[in-house]
Specification:
3 domains, 21% strand, Nucleotidyltransferase, domain 5, six-stranded mixed sheet, Rossmann fold, 15 helices, alpha/beta, eight-stranded mixed sheet
């Protein structure tokens, strides 16, 4: 007996889901239920046997939609198979591509295209790369574009404001999602009371506001870069620690969410002074303790037990030369930098304690130059450190520390155990 699947959708989600237009454009406020809609759309389409492409500015963004899709599948006991070309549900498949590496999507075939945060993607990514993939005829082709707004001069905003005959437009705000916890709404309103009315109108209500260079909203965002942090309190505080060797500088980077709170560097200290360096970084960021601390695993011998106990709840060594968990990258060092570049495209803000070293950070990121390595199947690698030293006359310690702070990495359980750390620390 075939099991009936009923996915609960909000009123605005149902309108988008059942619309048969070739283009569907939905401008959404934060917390409106956008990801839930995309997950449902991808799940049902794949279950019907369609070939689905999910695209976004970064692969990390697409993973949120895929996670929502899997959650629905597991809820209804529908098998999900993970293969090299994506995930398979029923007779259909779901593949992920990003604006970071658009060429990976060229030549693919699909019935349905779903683009999350489309306003943050380049228009050519849709026109020249993704649109030609929607050419399978066994199901009616369809393209769903969703995004939070990014100003009146953005290509998606123009499509939304001036729709063609084959386009349906939709709009959703956070107030339309009754699944959202009331406490979350109250905290969010408090957060935006700090950021200002313009930010709330744009991000919660999904309004398309003037975002030109001299607009009041643009000036507000610029001023925000050097004001006190406005990230929600429940986000983890993360430290990236790079201990330079051979006369290089050691650097501590502290971040919360997409905000880099502090950058502190000093000549590579003795073992007893490492705690003081991390303490300075946390103090500059305005915190006494971090949730996680990532550090270059080759520096294990330099660390003392008190550093682990005093400054972070979880300590995670990252061996730069080890195999990457991100299939785009050759090793973990490349994965660190690719993760940071993904975040930069989403938008990183800088606290006042970062201003002095921001120029050096940008220099480190530019000189690292993640490039495809043909000898490793086209995966991304970085310029060797020896070559970087020749170019900038120093090691990219600030870039390494910041990349460690922004890495998206879940190490093997062994690397997180105290027994493992006891082999290296006193």
């Amino acid at each position: 007996m075939r099991k009936k699947i009923v996915i609960p959708l909000l009123e605005w989600q149902r309108k988008v889901f059942w619309d048969k237009s070739f283009f569907r454009i939905c401008i959404c406020g934060r917390g409106s239920g956008k990801t839930a809609l995309l997950g449902a759309e991808a799940f049902v389409s794949a279950l019907q046997g369609q070939q689905v492409i999910i695209a976004a500015p970064t692969l990390r963004q697409t993973s949120y939609v895929v996670a929502e899709t899997k959650k629905i599948a597991w809820k209804y006991d529908v098998p999900v198979l993970s293969k090299a070309d994506g995930i398979h549900i029923g007779k259909g498949s779901i593949r992920q591509f990003s604006n970071v590496n658009p060429d990976f999507a060229r030549g693919k075939n699909a019935n349905k295209l779903i683009i999350d945060e489309a306003a943050y993607c380049k228009e050519y990514f849709l026109k020249e790369v993704l649109l030609p993939t929607v050419r399978l005829k066994d199901f009616p082709p369809s393209i769903l574009l969703t995004s939070s707004p990014l100003g009146t001069d953005n290509w998606l905003s123009q499509r939304y404001l001036n729709p063609t005959k084959d386009t349906s437009i939709f709009h959703a705000t956070y107030t339309e999602n009754f699944y959202t916890n009331a406490t979350w709404k109250e905290k969010t309103l408090e957060e935006y009371a700090v950021r200002g009315e313009m930010a709330m109108r744009r991000e919660l209500m999904g309004e398309i506001l003037d975002y030109t260079e001299n607009s009041p909203f643009s000036q507000f965002i610029k001023n925000l870069n050097y004001t006190e942090t406005w990230e929600p309190n429940n986000l983890p505080v993360i430290i990236g620690l790079d201990l330079g060797g051979g006369g290089d500088f050691s650097t501590v980077a502290v971040r919360k969410g997409n905000r880099l709170l502090a950058l502190v560097k000093a000549k590579t200290p003795e073992d007893k002074d490492i705690q003081e360096l991390v303490r300075q970084g946390l103090k500059a960021a305005g915190y006494a303790k971090a949730d996680r601390l990532y550090f270059d695993g080759s520096a294990l011998a330099k660390l003392t037990r008190s550093l682990f106990v005093e400054f972070a709840n979880k300590i995670i060594p990252v061996v730069f030369g080890a195999k990457a968990t991100d299939r785009r990258c050759v090793n973990l060092r490349a994965q660190c930098y690719i993760g940071l570049l993904d975040r930069l495209r989403e938008g990183i803000t800088y606290g006042a304690q970062c201003v002095a070293l921001k120029t050096e950070l940008v220099r480190d990121l530019l000189v690292a130059r993640p490039t495809p390595d043909e000898s490793n199947g086209g995966r991304f690698g970085l310029i060797p450190k020896d070559e970087i030293r020749k170019e900038i006359n120093r090691s990219p310690d600030i870039g390494d520390a910041t990349a460690l702070a922004f890495i998206d990495y879940n190490p093997p359980d062994l690397a997180e155990t105290q027994d493992f750390l006891n082999q290296f620390v006193g």
